[in-house]
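Before surveying the methods themselves, it helps to consider a single example record, giving the amino acid sequence and backbone structure tokens:
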Amino acid sequence: MNTTTKTTNSADIGLIGLAVMGQNLALNMNDHGFTVAVTNRTLSTVDHFLAGEAAGTNIIPAYSNEELVQMLKRPRRVMLMVKAGSPVDAVIEQLVPLLEEGDIIIDGGNSHYADSTRRTRELAEKGILFIGAGISGGEEGARYGPSIMPGGSPAAWPHVQPIFQAIAAKADDGEPCCKWVGEEGAGHYVKMVHNGIEYGDMQLIAEAYDLMAHALKMTPPEMSDVFARWNQSKLNSYLIEITADIMAYKDEDGEPLLNKILDSAGQKGTGKWTAIAALEEGIPLTLIAEAVFARSLSALLDERAAAAELLGSNTGTYDGDTASFIEQLGAALYTAKIVSYSQGFMLLRAAAETFGWNIDFGEVASLWRAGCIIRAAFLDEVMQAFRRQPQLPNLLLDDYFRQEVQAAELGWRNTVARAVQLGIAVPALSSSLAFYDGYRRQRLPANLIQAQRDYFGAHTYERIDRPRGDFFHTDWTGEGGDVTATTYVA
């Protein structure tokens, strides 16, 4: 067991959970001059960490939660980097008897926002402050600068702000990618939407790859050159950058490794959470939902193999101008990406209204400009759009984004049309275009749906020639009555 000298009330923050993310955050805090006390359920991990990556640092080992709490300055700040769900509740239950009024528990894991809301309220009854902090950037981000999205008890923020903003990634203008997001579960909600947008971005890129590989018969090195070029344009982003790297990577035999990777995508659930939340709020989060479903479809390996043999595959090859195809594909990728972020912020706005959270959407965009997985050059423009109009209902209505989409619309539309003609599925690209076309229609065919609902279920309808809120029912067959059914408005 490590025998590093321990001093009561000497540590700025305690950290429980020394998996890779926890270790890297502790090292990051140490690099910025903060004294961190650490512990782990498996105590041998503490010794291994102190003898390895943390050797020579000021990180202090603790071999129980009691010992860790005794080392902390008041108000005590304890950060949990443990598996989301019941393990977080179990550690909180162990900590509560050891803490005093005004002490702070921080959950830095990938928790569901509803759990963070519950924990904020339950701990408030005990006089303890809670922060649910969404953290993005993976292992490298945790070590050298993640994007941090804290929410929970507002009174806790001043006590963790210096630490979090010091270790967070910095945007090009020097702003830390860590600002207070909002009350209760707002921090983890924003992180959930971030992950949903991440699902959408990855699916859009995968569809662009699919079109280049099968419609244009391009090799991974050729595609790598395209993505590298796109990364020098408006499409500049972390995911585009790493895609270029992935496509250029060769296996030990000199062949592209990408071609050898099984086409079944995993998921940890945050994309599904985002889609479910959108259904609960009645927000048409079509692109992200399609990205989640695309991963589910990819997992049906045996079934797809059987279907391919029985139904055949009619994937065609494009015989036109390759350069023009790639240019229009880039336009489609860019415009669909704008739609994805537009839908994400629509969901954030609806949730803020539902839960009474004071979320600054421009600040949320600023948090994503560096450190996180969806960092992209155009987030500066997203941030400016909300700073110009804090109550902007949709990014598509901002002058900058409206003009960007209109300029690229033809390439977007042509790309989707060609994909359909060639038999190549592009669910994210096509659903984003369908949303755009539907969103800008003054009148949709939902009037027929309302008539049908009233016909078979007496669900009533409103009329365009009468005031909103007045509901009507028609006896369509002459055999019905005056009794109507209730409904809900999404």
